Write the structure tokens for this entry.
Amino acid sequence: MNTHIYAFGSVCRGEVDPSSDIDLLACLSKPKMEYDPEKFSIYSHDRIKELWLEGNPFSWHLHLESKLIFSSNGSNFLLDLGKPSTYSKSLEDCKKFNQLFLESYYSLMQSSISAVFHLSCMFLATRNFATCHSLGEGKPNFSRLSPLQLERKLPVTQENFDVYVRARILSTRGYGAAISSSEIEQALCVAPDIIGWMSELLPRGVSHE
Amino acid sequence: MSEFNNRIAAQRDILICINTKYWQEELFGLSRGAIERWVSVNQINSNTVLIKLVNESAKKLFFLSNKSQEQITEDYKMLSKEVSMLTKKIQNEMSLIK
């Protein structure tokens, strides 16, 4: 029965703010009830190996941004796995997140019902698009602010992008001040800029499908 | 459409159904934190059928925890019928409390 616990994500990048939580990964050789899935991302060692073979973005995230906290047998399981396979699904994943952004945007254009949730999905789509694109280009960036940090960065101010970030935190953690209708309008106004940015990063003809 | 986007679409349908009613504050997502906030702000009895259905849907859609880092691994197709049925039950429940 081996157990490995890692910290990963924002805390390993030194990106800490009042809304940050600490991402913890538990690699377990068999399920253990005492590990709360609310506090840990729980994986078997075999599943992690599969992710490494797939070259899944999460495997690259762990490979590049994780720190061993505890090992029951003294080994560093993730380090010993070496480099994950080459990530080959950048285009496929970017198209998927472009699609998600458009669906959420159109839903929000139709009605303000569930506006925070729609903005949250637009954030998720934008951040994951940027992360998958950067990984495909060989310059991986897993930051929450990755869209603003790429070479061809998102043409949106930090202030406007923060409305999307706050919506995401409200949706996934229920934490933070509510978003006002004027902030929702403010976020909606820059959505076409985000769509244009995605179109520029995707090969010609694959966006807006 | 990808399984991941399908799961988001199912969550979107459930939230729109719930948020169509006037609440002090909308339900922002099917995460544990968002559900607890919604129940607290709107002073909803957490033993109601609606809350049980919301929690069950969240569990099926894997959104209850915000800790799942993978995007494309779960087989949503196997769950889509169950989630559709839960969505219908939530719609019925909402029609009763309007």
Notes: Chain B touches chain A at residues 1-2, 4-5, 8-9, 11-12, 15-16, 19-20, 25-29, 31-38, 65-72 (CB under 8 Å). Residues 76-97 of chain B form the longest helix (22 residues). The helical segments of chain B are 3-19, 32-41, 49-60, 76-97.
